[in-house]
Amino acid sequence: MKKLISLILAGLFVVMVLASCGGSNTINYTAAEDQLTALRDVKANNSDIAVMDSVMANFYCEGSTFGDLMVLGGDDFKFDSEYYAIGFRKGSNAVDYINYALYVLSENGKYAEIGEKYGLTDTLCEIESCSMPEDQADSDYAYIKGKGEIVIGYTVFEPIAYKDGDDLVGFDIDLAKEVADILDIEVKFEVINWNSKEQELNAKNIDCIWNGFTYTEERAENISFSKFYMENRQVMVIREADADKYATYASMKNAAFAAEGGSAGEKLVKGTIQKNIFG
């Protein structure tokens, strides 16, 4: 018995030594409620690095509130382009109507006008030509039209969707209103929990996810996406004071990461970034 106890104690000692030496190859990550929360966590020193959309990161880091934060530059920290699209229930024909409206807005200049308003001109995609689809009975779009409104799920995400005083504004908000006007339907905006966005969609609590929603092949298995309307990429945001501290992946082994739960940023943290840090 004494020998067994000695072996157990010796094993525990080895585990403690490995832990103290940083033996874990798992990234220190906390899921945030949304991207803005991840950014606030870095500013408040609750996290060291936020991984988020470049569209939002550039907007905030150039402002006064988060002026002490910066986007990590350099080719080592440059990730692939990704694209925003509007997500509907799988198989929904509402996608065809949205695509048509987006094309009309690209042709009449409204799409470019809204992009310029929010400083997003360089991120806009070319919208391919398409025609107004024929109405179908017992379809998802017929269901939406029957209600008289399309319910759009969103989270706070400047400059995509945010409050300016009492008004809800942003690129996606303005664009959605213009689309609804073309389709002659009312629009209603509902704040959602990003982690349960697909459940909200399939339960018909909302009719689409329109909030800087990144297209992925994995998501496309369960969601029908519109045409791409904006180009984006993931970036890492740190405190300016830590610019020298986090200049390489190797230097990030003990850094605390944050990203919106269920987002493209979270996937990047747990995948490519973790692999680059620990090999």
Which helices and strands occur, and which strands form pairs?
Layout: H1 2-20, E1 28-32, H2 35-43, E2 49-53, H3 54-61, E3 69-71, E4 81-84, E5 87-89, H4 94-108, H5 110-117, H6 140-147, E6 149-154, E7 162-164, E8 167-169, H7 171-182, E9 186-191, H8 197-202, E10 208-209, H9 217-220, E11 223-225, E12 230-239, E13 256-260, H10 264-278
From the spread of the alpha carbons, the general shape counts as elongated
Reported for the largest beta sheet, the result is:
6 strands, mixed
Distance between the termini: 42 Å
Task: Please write the CATH class name of the largest domain.
Answer: Alpha Beta
Number of spatially distinct domains: 2
Q: Work out the helix count.
A: 10
How large, in whole angstroms, is the Cα Rg? Answer: 22 Å
Instruction: Please mark out the parts with pLDDT under 50 across 5 or more consecutive residues, or reply none.
Output: 12-22
Strand residue percentage: 15-25%
Give the proportion of residues in helices.
Answer: 25-40%
Relevant CATH superfamily of the largest domain? Periplasmic binding protein-like II
The tally of beta strands, per DSSP, is 13
CATH fold-level topology of the largest domain: D-Maltodextrin-Binding Protein, domain 2
What is the overall pLDDT average? Answer: 91
Helix/strand-derived category reads: alpha/beta
